[in-house]
Amino acid sequence: MIDDLKKSFDQIIHERTTSRFYGSFIISWSLWNWKIIYLTFFVSQNKIDTNKIDYIINNFSNVGNILIFPFLSSIFIITIVPIYNKWDILAFVKI
After folding, report:
1. pLDDT at 70 over 70
2. In this structure, which of 44, 51, 61, 65 has its CB flanked by the most CB atoms within 10 Å?
3. Which domain range does residue 63 map to?
């Protein structure tokens, strides 16, 4: 029973870490929401008026930055970057 759960968990982790979409989404989310990451790890609780979670929710929790822009960036990365790389390789071969 525990071995089956471990195998299932390992399979899910492997699938999510090797997927192009998940990787590009994590990178895109990190770039769009760098202020949340910076605030969480590098700003002291004493520097803000409320606790960090309330401050993040009040100032940085709009749907665009949390979901829409990272999703669109991921789609862009998944579709445009391979096309660009293919054209770049073809240009190199023609020379």
Report:
1. yes
2. 65
3. 2-94
